[in-house]
Fold this sequence. Notes:
- The protein is an alpha/beta fold.
- 36% of the residues lie in helices and 24% in strands.
- It has helices at 13-23, 43-50, 66-80, 96-101, 125-134, 169-193, and strands spanning 2-7, 30-37, 55-57, 84-87, 106-110, 138-145, 155-162, 197-200, 203-206.
- The chain starts with a strand and ends with a strand.
Amino acid sequence: xxxxxVLVSGGGTNLQAIIDAVEAKTITNTEIIGVISNNKNAxxxxxxxxxxxxxxxxxxxxxxxxxxxxxxxLEEVNGLNPDLIVLAGFLVVIPEQMIKQYENKIIxxxxxxxxxxxxxxxxxxxxxxKALERGVxxxxxxxxxxxxxxxxxPIILQKAVSVQQGDTPEILQRRVMEEAEWKILPEAxxxxxxxxxxxxxxxxxxxx
Length: 208
């Protein structure tokens, strides 16, 4: 059984997609053992509560230094002893020590087809604003492993989404969530839980 901890900063729509997929058994061999947010008002924590999942807020604002926060954050995660950490809209930089400790055990969902519209400063609605400014015809989402860079880890899954005439950033964001994010994030977790993913030379191989 794959023990999963989900890290989230906001509403938790991707968390909900994971919960729904576990309940529908489209994700198998998986248990969500905890939800951690840096935002005490994140609706994601309420979602966790509704499903009887352990939830906790750990905010950098509550610590004098980022180092103190990193230590407390890592201690909390280690206490849950997860097999996989899922970043589902988590807007805090993951401590380097955690990345090393959980190599190829942390995944992130990013709302673009990496390497387009990714890296520092590209998160949330900003990604879709930039995509529309550039006039691209296809956008999408990417699930990737987390490494020391920003959106630079090995790519697991990607799904394309068409841009439509009259799209606003908000409309496009919603379509990318519905057509891509909420599908490929659960799929990636299912593949990992069932031993279908291997990483060799920074390339992800999917078996079966």
